[in-house]
């Protein structure tokens, strides 16, 4: 946490961002909600008339509800690309069930005698629906809409993963950057938004019917206004668009540094790591951030731009291990160091390529590599015990975790549990500190900038020298956290900007400075 | 006025009403009497097309009711339900205005008619602003009747109109209904399972069982000339009571004279009459 800066100060500093994200969040929630109401209410009425469809429709809506939000967003990408469109559709799908179900329940539960009287007096079907069934089902219907609203405010945070914006930008940026203020700056407004919308709807529910009708007239106008602001094209006139992860957006050695050091000024959207390569490949994005050893570079035919002003610090991977574990199992350090200096940038990229693009299992790739290097001789010695390896959620970390697992299990009596998929840096690091894992592969740059949060002066002094950074993190981690950085594995998985090969060649952009100049000229 | 011809209706192959025919004259009260499931409500609901018969035809003023829209037909026929069927989200005023609004009356007409009817039914005008839930059972039933009578329909269908009331209230309201001049000129078909009610209110009674008519005739006919054993059996328990209601001495019902004469005198009178 930045020293002395409270959440409120952070929010004040970032008020522009905060307002923009909140508006987007509100826009996503409301547009999807309105769409859901427009579809779900008639659908609910329909199944209350044709009961044999009720099970089918409610069942289908129920299944939609059980799909994890991230998965649903991922499924949307091939059809709808990135941005607000898939996000709105996903949110729309989530809002369907509560509204359909409550419309159906509300209408079905209207007193049969009342419906009978209405019919017997000569009211038409439409009049019975609008004057009897709807008003009487209204409280139940509204309860459904309120449930859907609260769900949508929550799920809309995930829109940040597919370049649709919203408060998820702060939340996921904060998680990635180990910045609690940033997490709260996204989470608090999101919670308030959920409460506020729920209260507003509960007030609307209590209005007399005539006033409610007024609200119905005004609501679409408000929504239209919101839509018009929101659906403004984010790419005006063929300008280049960059998509950066929430983490990259908030880092000094990321977008902030690009702006300061290079004077880079371009349209940006926030997008998740999983989506950005595909989006760049499909031309939805022109510039993305990434890692220089990422297999997807090869898979999607992207090129990295040369960092000619050295803003990206070196990211040499090395295992970070708890000292107490090294003391308990002295032979562990030697085993882990067998990998040191062994994997080059190119080798790592091609290993990653096999996992990310060719979809080989990390186990197989790790096993092949270790066998080719003849590192898998069986040498069972030493005490038995369990070592828990953590890893972040991407291929390279899975491969490294598997390699360590195989090395340890073939070279000792220890057994290994892998806890893969620990989200971002903060989650891994916290798990390590809380003794939930024993070690995980970390990068010198991440340890330096994200976990230690050095002063700007220190960053300036150290970033250009890979050994200086390593020495610094080794010393600091040992003193502050009682954690040991073992020897680096060899490759430097640093941040890089990347573009499609064809576009980069056409515009003759080779370095980040070239990109900046190109943008300035246009 | 109303003529039903060979009405049949079955549900899932089980006949609810079978080959039913009857006629109701203008201004007459016909009671459909029978136990639960005898088809009386089904019969009633075929007259305003809430149920369409499988076979047979209903004529209203000589015209097949299937000509024209069911909604138009229903607006001309008053309908009173057992559980009053008042709209809980409407005030009493809005409830009674439903049919006039459907018929596009203007506000003045509606108001005048509401005041007239409320006066006749002994309902206080202060009730108009209340919601049905704030009314007593008797008031609810009276408002239900007022709603059915608002547009002054020539025909009134009543489905167990007093069924939801306690017996004391029921007897009181029944009396009021009988004395109501609004109802005198109306053609009424009423469904009930209450034999007393049927005998008190009906000009003619149609006793039904298993979807068929057991006997259709005046109360006296049912009582003294039962068409079959079913009718005899059905009326047996309350025979004496019914006799008292049916028998008239110099144009007055014996039952009503009981208060004046005392039961002893009445029994003597009755014995004289019988012998």
TrEMBL record, chain A:
Presence of keyword Transmembrane: yes
UniProt-listed GO biological process terms: glycine betaine transport
GO function terms (MF aspect): transmembrane transporter activity
Coiled-coil region: none
Cross-referenced Pfam families: BPD_transp_1 (PF00528), OpuAC (PF04069)
SUPFAM superfamilies from the UniProt entry: MetI-like (SSF161098), Periplasmic binding protein-like II (SSF53850)
Bilayer-crossing regions: 26-46, 53-73, 150-176, 182-201, 213-232
Membrane topology: Multi-pass membrane protein
Compartment(s): Cell membrane
Family, similarity comment: Belongs to the binding-protein-dependent transport system permease family. In the C-terminal section; belongs to the OsmX family.
Name under which the protein is recorded: Osmoprotectant transport system permease protein
Organism, scientific name: Pedobacter nutrimenti
UniProtKB/TrEMBL annotation, chain B:
Ranges in coiled-coil conformation: none
One GO process term, biological-process aspect: quaternary ammonium group transport
Keywords: ATP-binding, Nucleotide-binding, Transport
Pfam family, one: ABC_tran
ABC transporter domain: residues covered: 2-235
GO MF annotation, one: ATP binding
Key word Iron-sulfur present: no
Top-level lineage group: Bacteria
The keyword Glycoprotein belongs to this UniProt entry's keyword annotation: no
Protein family (similarity comment): Belongs to the ABC transporter superfamily.
PANTHER family with a match to the protein in the record: OSMOPROTECTANT IMPORT ATP-BINDING PROTEIN OSMV (PTHR43117:SF4)
This protein's name: Osmoprotectant transport system ATP-binding protein
Source taxonomy: Bacteria, Pseudomonadati, Bacteroidota, Sphingobacteriia, Sphingobacteriales
């Amino acid at each position: 946490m930045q020293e002395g800066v409270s959440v409120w100060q952070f929010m004040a500093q970032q008020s522009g961002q905060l307002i923009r994200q909140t508006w987007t969040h509100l826009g996503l929630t409301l547009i999807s909600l309105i769409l859901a109401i427009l579809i779900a209410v008639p659908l609910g009425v329909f199944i209350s008339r044709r009961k044999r469809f009720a099970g089918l429709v409610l069942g289908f809506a129920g299944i939609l509800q059980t799909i994890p939000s991230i998965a649903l967003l991922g499924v949307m990408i091939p059809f709808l690309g990135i941005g607000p469109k898939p996000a709105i559709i996903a949110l729309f799908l989530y809002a369907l069930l509560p509204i359909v179900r409550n419309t159906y329940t509300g209408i079905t539960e209207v007193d049969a005698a009342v419906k009978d009287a209405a019919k017997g007096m000569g009211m038409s079907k439409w009049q019975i629906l609008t004057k009897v069934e709807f008003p009487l089902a209204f409280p139940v219907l509204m309860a459904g809409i309120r449930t859907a609203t609260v769900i949508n405010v929550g799920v809309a945070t995930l829109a940040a993963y597919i370049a649709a914006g919203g408060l998820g930008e702060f939340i996921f940026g904060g998680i990635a950057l180990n910045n609690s203020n940033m997490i709260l700056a996204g989470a608090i407004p999101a919670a308030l938004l959920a409460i506020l919308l729920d209260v507003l709807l509960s007030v609307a529910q209590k209005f007399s019917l005539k006033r409610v009708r007024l609200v119905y007239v005004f609501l679409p106008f408000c929504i239209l206004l919101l839509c018009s602001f929101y659906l403004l094209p984010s790419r005006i006139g063929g300008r280049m668009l960059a998509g950066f992860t929430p983490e990259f957006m908030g880092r000094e050695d990321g977008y902030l540094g690009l702006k300061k050091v290079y004077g880079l000024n371009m349209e940006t959207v926030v997008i998740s790591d999983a989506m950005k390569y595909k989006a760049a490949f499909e031309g939805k994005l022109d510039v993305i951030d990434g890692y220089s050893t990422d297999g997807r570079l090869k898979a999607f035919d992207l090129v990295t731009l040369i960092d000619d002003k050295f803003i990206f610090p070196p990211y040499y991977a090395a295992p970070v291990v708890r000292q107490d574990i090294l003391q308990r199992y002295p032979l562990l350090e030697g085993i882990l160091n067998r990998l040191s200096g062994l994997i080059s940038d190119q080798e790592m990229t091609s290993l990653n390529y096999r996992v990310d693009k060719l979809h080989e299992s990390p186990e197989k790739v790790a096993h092949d590599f270790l066998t080719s290097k003849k590192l898998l001789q069986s040498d069972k010695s030493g005490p038995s015990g369990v070592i828990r390896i953590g890893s972040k959620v991407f291929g390279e970390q899975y491969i490294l975790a598997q390699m360590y697992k195989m090395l340890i299990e073939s070279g000792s009596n220890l057994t290994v549990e892998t806890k893969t998929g620990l989200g971002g840096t903060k989650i891994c690091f916290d798990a390590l500190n809380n003794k939930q894992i024993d070690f995980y592969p970390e990068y010198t740059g991440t340890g330096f900038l994200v976990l230690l949060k050095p002063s700007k002066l220190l960053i300036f002094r150290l970033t250009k020298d890979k050994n200086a950074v390593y020495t610094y993190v080794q010393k600091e981690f040992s003193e502050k956290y009682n954690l040991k950085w073992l020897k680096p594995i060899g490759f430097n998985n640093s941040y890089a900007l990347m573009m499609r090969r064809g576009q980069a060649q056409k515009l003759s952009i080779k370095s980040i400075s070239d990109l900046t100049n190109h943008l300035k000229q246009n | 006025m109303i003529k039903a011809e060979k009405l049949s209706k079955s549900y899932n192959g089980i006949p609810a009403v079978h080959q039913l025919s009857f006629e109701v004259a203008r201004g007459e009260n016909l009671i459909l009497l029978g136990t639960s499931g005898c088809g009386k409500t089904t019969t009633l609901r075929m007259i305003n097309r809430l149920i369409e018969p499988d076979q047979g035809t209903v004529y209203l003023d000589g015209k097949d009711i299937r000509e024209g829209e069911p909604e138009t037909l229903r607006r001309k026929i008053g309908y009173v339900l057992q559980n009053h069927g008042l709209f809980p989200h409407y005030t009493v005023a809005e409830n009674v205005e439903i049919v006039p609004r459907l018929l596009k009356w203007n506000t003045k007409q509606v108001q005048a008619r509401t005041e007239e009817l409320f006066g006749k039914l002994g309902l206080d005008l202060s009730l108009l602003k209340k919601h049905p839930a704030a009314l007593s059972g008797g008031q609810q039933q009276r408002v239900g009747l007022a709603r059915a009578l608002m547009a002054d329909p020539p025909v009134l269908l009543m489905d167990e109109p007093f069924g939801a009331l306690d017996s004391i209230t029921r007897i009181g309201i029944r009396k009021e209904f009988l004395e109501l001049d609004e109802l005198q000129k109306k053609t009424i078909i009423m469904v009930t399972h209450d034999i007393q009610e049927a005998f008190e209110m009906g000009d003619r009674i149609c006793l039904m069982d298993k979807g068929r008519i057991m006997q259709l005739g005046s109360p006296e006919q049912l009582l003294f000339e039962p068409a079959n054993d079913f009718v005899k059996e059905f009326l047996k328990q309350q025979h004496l009571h019914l006799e008292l209601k049916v028998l008239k001495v110099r144009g007055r019902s014996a039952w009503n004279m009981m208060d004046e004469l005392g039961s002893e005198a009445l029994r003597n009178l009755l014995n004289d009459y019988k012998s």
